[in-house]
Design a protein that fits this description.
alpha/beta, Rossmann fold, 2 domains, 13 helices, about 35% helix
Length: about 375
């Protein structure tokens, strides 16, 4: 199979979908890799390393798309790339269709086979390609939150962990999954007072067992969220429903009760966000103020640390890339349910039920 790896075009996105060792493994199996020159530079990987691994460097992204049977990306195709999509071509990337009907309709019209990293699901119900990026985003959420709590950044002017004799910050995390757990670990390690909320009592029991004493668990419901937000210095939105738009759990009326200069980091923004006042931002312009509360809603948080995120992602994605390349997507999906779950749109038909329901589109059984 001919596999194309373009340079990411999303603003401030520094990841790349394939590393040199992945090229080497695929070339050994008889596949051809077309890599756009400079695709790995944001992750600290020069073109020469790809060449030595067997990739063919291409200077024009149009040639990458036109020559490839499967295109590997990190982020969804942007408007400038829509015209490059070819019928029957496989696109393997993060799509997050539920957050954008325009993207979904363009991909439907293109006739490509869209396999979404975020809906690939293993036998244990986990999301092996989403998990490493959720780990990065969860840890980054506290790093960014601590920074934006500083007064020059328009925050409250407090240190997350406090100092002896001064109360530490109150961190409220809505969602106890991978993002929330990693956020809680980092916040607790810095000395903050942390509340982590979820609707799954078994998950809360598990978190209560493994977390340090400065982390408390609380059932997630409107009343508890409302009460905790009044005390919160930093709020982390960490909700995920596979394939679907994130539910809006936190209303603007709740935000109005937060302290002036409090900070929100909505990690759920890729899937639409779990906070009514959230809207997508970029690393270049990451924040905005609503009702005196600073919002950080960057849609590709892990992209800022490409040197870590690229390796974390490709460690997980390479086995699936190899399987799809070796078997073609139809056989790979038949033989590996994880890949079947990854299929979102196939040649104009929406085959992921959650995506279809989120956007009120016709669902075709896969």
């Amino acid at each position: 199979m001919i596999i194309g790896v373009p340079k990411e075009t999303k603003k401030d996105e520094y990841r790349v979908a394939l590393i040199p060792v992945g090229v080497e493994e695929l070339v050994k199996k008889g596949h051809t890799i077309l890599l756009e020159s400079g695709a790995g530079l944001g992750s600290g990987i020069p073109d020469g390393e790809y060449s030595r691994a067997g990739a063919k460097l291409v200077g024009d992204v149009k040639k990458v798309f036109s020559g490839a049977e499967m295109v590997l990306k990190v982020k969804e195709p942007l408007r400038g790339e829509y015209s490059l999509l070819r019928e029957n071509q496989i696109i393997f990337t993060f799509f997050h269709f539920a957050a954008s009907k325009d993207l979904t309709e363009r991909v439907i019209r293109s006739g490509v086979v869209a396999i979404a990293y975020e809906t690939v699901r293993d036998q244990r119900g986990g999301h092996p390609l989403l998990t490493p990026m959720s780990e990065v985003a969860g840890r980054m959420s506290i790093q960014q939150g601590a920074k934006y709590l500083e007064k020059p950044m328009e925050g409250r002017g407090i240190l997350l962990g406090g100092v002896p004799g001064v109360t530490p910050a109150e961190v409220v995390i809505v969602g106890g999954g991978i993002v929330g757990t990693n956020a809680a670990k980092v916040a607790a390690g810095l000395g903050a007072k942390v509340t982590i909320m979820d609707i799954d009592l078994d998950r809360l029991r598990y978190l209560d067992d493994i977390m340090p004493k400065n982390v408390i668990t609380l059932m997630s419901n409107a009343q508890n969220i409302r009460e905790r937000l009044k005390e919160a210095d930093l709020l982390i939105g960490a909700i995920l429903i596979e394939g679907a738009r994130t539910p809006l759990l936190i209303t603007r009326d709740m935000i109005k009760t937060m302290k002036p200069g409090a900070v929100i980091v909505d990690v759920s923004i890729d899937q639409g966000g779990c906070i009514e006042t959230s809207r997508p931002t970029t690393h270049s312009k990451p924040t905005f103020m609503v009702d005196g509360v600073l919002h950080y809603c960057v849609t590709n948080m892990p992209g800022a640390v490409g040197g870590t995120s690229t390796y974390a992602l490709t460690n997980a994605s390479l086995p699936y890339v190899i399987e799809i390349a070796d078997k073609e997507y139809e056989r790979a999906a038949r033989e590996n349910p994880a890949i079947k779950y990854g299929l979102n749109i196939v040649k104009g038909k929406v085959v992921n039920k959650a995506v279809a329901e989120a956007l009120d589109l016709l669902h075709h059984a896969n």
